[in-house]
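Bug #77: duplicate submission created two jobs. Keeping one. Sequence:
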Amino acid sequence: MDIVYTVLERRPGHPSRSRGESAEITAALWAHAAEHDRLEHVAARCESNRVDLLFYLATVDIAARAATGPEDRAFALLRRCYEASPLLTRRYLPPVPAGGADIAG
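Kept job's structure:
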């Protein structure tokens, strides 16, 4: 199993944590997860300025991992969910890949 940590930064001026926010985020991620993401579990912890996410992904074989590592799979899922979810788009800034610089779609 691979574990990937990532963060969604809250939009400036958006109210801090709301009741049930973690559950809403994890439900949105599960709703947009595809079989190729190999998502096993996701955990969310909301802070005043961000939400911390842990993705637990089933490990793939070495050849497949070279093509799409766990960080790439987690980012692709998060980006896909963000683009499809008005809830995430309203509350958070766009996700940034592990390398740091945001990339288009």
